Amino acid sequence: MPETRTWQVRWQSAQRSARVAARRAQRSARTAGRTAHRAAFAASDAARQAWRAAPRHTRQTWRLTALSAATGLAVAVVAVAAAGPWDSGQRTAERAAAAGVPDTGGEHHDDGRAPRPVPSAPPVLAALSGPAHGAAGPGTAPAPTGAGLADALAPLLADPALGPLRTASVLDIAAGRQVFGAEQDEAATPASTVKLATAVAALSKLGADHRIDTSVVMGGKDRIVLVGGGDPTLTARAPVPGAGEQPAGLRALADDTARVLKRRGITKVGLGYDTSAYTGPVEHPIGPNENLAPVTALMTDEARLDGSDHGPAPRATDPAGDAAGVFAGLLRQRGITVDGDSGEATAPQRPDRIATVHSLPLSALVERMLTNSDNDIAEALARQTARASGQPASFDGAATAVRDALAAQHLPLAGAVFEDGSGLDRGDKVSANLLSHLLLAAAAPDKPDLRPVVTGLPVAAFTGTLSGRYVGDTAGAGAVRAKTGTLTGVNTLAGTVVDADGRLLAFAFMTTGTTDAQAAQKALDRMASTVANCGCR
Questions:
Q1: Which residues pair with 475 in a beta bridge?
Q2: What CA–CA distance (Å, rounded) separates 412 from 423?
Q3: Residue 276 is a catalytic residue
Q4: Among 169, 342, 363, 373, which one carries the catalytic annotation?
Q5: Where are the transmembrane segments (predicted)?
Q6: What's the CA gap between 295 and 280, in Å, rounded?
Q7: Which value, to the nearest 10 degrees, does the dihedral of the CA atoms of residues 443, 92, 371, 134 take?
Q8: N or C: which end of the chain has fewer CB within 10 A?
Q9: Could you tell me if 438 and 453 are in contact, meaning their C-beta atoms sit under 8 angstroms apart?
Q10: Are 128 and 445 in contact (CB under 8 A)?
Q11: Does the structure show a pLDDT above 70 at 109?
Q12: Active site residue 373
């Protein structure tokens, strides 16, 4: 087969883009009028029937609501006008902002600033939940062909920035089938994309609404025990006003504990702490590291010593002891004397629980883990999966539990090895086929508990570990949603994208043996952007 030259690839891409634009315009012109007419008629008829059937006081309420809505609409029109012109559902100012993001990409290059606003990109599950980009309906957008995707992706897989091992898998989510693959069954080091496996395992075993408890129980006469349940997001910081539901707070736990003790006439106690929810070594095999605290069932703020809430940070060496010390100080501030220093203890088998705080739901923990590539949450969720499976809550027990949970979902596990939940261990091995099928499972309409895996993916150029990538990339910025993975010599990217025809696709690109991390990241990003910009038929 003759070599495909750069100008040929660009010419083919331009032809595809022109065909896509023509198809969109035709579909929009044909359907816009019919859809608007039907919707207006149905809404008008329904409104008339509802008005006739409503009692008098309800009609008065509706009149007031209509007046308020009209006022709000007027304000909204002014706000939209001030925000700038719109183009295909996206403010042109946002598009310009996406193109102007500074090049600092990568999950190990977080600058600590707040995430940028997410643009009006195609919905995460557009091809399943409704039309996108003028598509006729759920799953009815034209599907890409294997030959079309091969023409677009094969030249990019030959990029010299990639390492010797290069694997890829692209799935059509509506059809549930692979449309492109390159060594897709070859197991490779996933780095942080293994968090997708951790997330699916935890959600499938525990459910999206599961919460992790931190409790205080009576440990004998005038003695209490702080019992860690494994919530790494337990915080000793003051709540943020107006921030909605927040992580479990050690301050709230101290409030409740002091209140109950005083009600019982107790103002002086001894304090112990129980971390027996987890077993085995607390230190990750990579040793002390700013990317992960010692893995223990009791800690506050991920044992961070610099006040940060994500990214690398110096960590405490004894998170449980430090958390107990902070708790003792909080009790003293609330009028409870803590006698002596706190020490390790074991809670009674049938404890008298006097106070409990609950973590955010597992769905929120999974989203935070994936958006920020949070290693502490990943290791915690792997151990929570082990506990729910009857396995030891250790590195080894978590590895067994994660694999078993994925096997129960009938996922392709050939060659898969799980040494940890975070991907920091180079012994982890998964295939591109497994990564793409994890995303396929998460997008399945009959598996709503897995949906946080999709909604938690970083958005290219705007959130999480993709906030500094896709610079000047109008096809990928705001459209690609993907979990990143980076270790020395390892670069991976796995996520979802809606292609130019409105078809939702899952992809996984992996490479090992890279020598320039930034160049390798950009090569993977180009592949994802190409899928987003492709009609590929």
A1: none
A2: 18
A3: no
A4: 373
A5: 64-86
A6: 10
A7: 0
A8: N
A9: yes
A10: yes
A11: no
A12: yes
